[in-house]
From TrEMBL:
Species of the source: Cladophialophora yegresii CBS 114405
InterPro entries: C-N_Hydrolase, C-N_Hydrolase_sf, Nit1/2_C-N_Hydrolase
This protein's record includes keyword Magnesium: no
Annotated keywords: Hydrolase
Protein name: CN hydrolase domain-containing protein
């Protein structure tokens, strides 16, 4: 078993503030003896508008947020998985929503770009969020990479609603699936836990879902409920979530971590006990 630290924060539009929050979690993870820290989607910033999001976006070579985490990873010999924003290549009026793995030497060793963008309209009772207004979708499922926790497959937030990428990563050898997120409160209450458990059960993988939590600005609140699911669909641990949007105060929540022992024997056991032999002869393989 290997101990993982899974972080929950409430990012704002200030990269320096968000870096300080994440640095606190690095120290908590180190103190707990964790072998890696997993941080949420958009840990570098959550803006109040698509225009502000594009304005705040920086290349990793220039981002004080990313550079600060690279230094923290190197100084503490602690790998860090974190969701950030990056410019498109070639540059455009949109950005990329990515997940990077910073290894224990501070190098960016893996990168995944979010495939499915969050276009939501719950008006008049809920929010309207259209990620595609400012974000370029990714175009590939990236092969799982090796870590102390086995082979890890990267996905982000809205990807959770689609089983196909998770199944593909399982076939590519994933032992663990990541879903760093910034779920809205209405959709979080309805779908967050049940979708995470479904992805774990159908792939027989550990699922690690670090989450944004709380009121980021006057327009945006994230559900929270950072959670880890075992390969047989049980909840191994979780942090708190937003109960009532009206009670939330902007940037009032303190960053926190959940620590869970990731046991790869559990992956072997459930796959041996309930082998999932797909009938690819009668349906098209995803």
């Amino acid at each position: 078993m290997v101990l993982a630290a899974i972080g929950q924060i409430c990012s704002s539009a200030s990269l320096s503030h968000n870096l300080a929050q994440c640095q606190k979690l690095v120290q908590k993870a180190v103190a707990a003896g964790a072998k890696a820290l997993f941080l949420p989607e958009a840990s570098d910033y959550i803006a109040s508008s698509p225009a502000e999001s594009v304005e705040l976006c920086q290349d990793v070579s220039e981002s004080p947020f990313v550079q600060g985490l690279q230094e923290a990873a190197q100084e503490n010999s602690l790998p860090i998985n974190v969701g950030i924003h990056e410019p498109t290549n070639p540059p455009s009026k949109r950005i990329r929503n990515t997940l990077i793995w910073i290894d224990h030497k501070g190098n960016i060793a893996h990168r995944y770009q979010k495939l499915h963008l969050f276009d939501l309209d719950l008006r008049p009772t809920g929010p309207r969020l259209k990620e595609s207004d400012s974000t370029e979708p990714g175009n590939e499922i990236v092969e799982p990479y090796s870590t102390p926790f086995g082979r890890v497959g990267s996905l982000i937030c809205f990807d959770l609603r689609f089983p196909e990428p998770a199944l593909r990563l399982r076939r590519l050898g994933a032992d663990v699936l990541l879903y760093p997120s910034a779920f809205t409160v209405p959709t979080g209450k309805l779908h967050w836990e049940i979708l995470l458990r479904c992805r774990a059960i159908e792939t027989q993988c550990w699922v690690i879902a670090s989450a944004q939590c709380g009121k980021h600005n006057g327009r945006r609140v994230s559900y929270g409920d950072t959670i880890v699911i075992t390969p047989n669909g049980r909840i191994a641990g979780r942090l708190e979530h937003v109960e009532n949007v009206e009670d939330e105060k902007e940037q009032a929540r303190e960053p926190d971590i959940l620590t869970v022992d990731i046991d790869l024997e559990a992956v072997k056991q459930v796959r041996h006990s309930i082998p999932l032999q797909r009938r690819t002869d009668v349906y098209r393989e995803v």
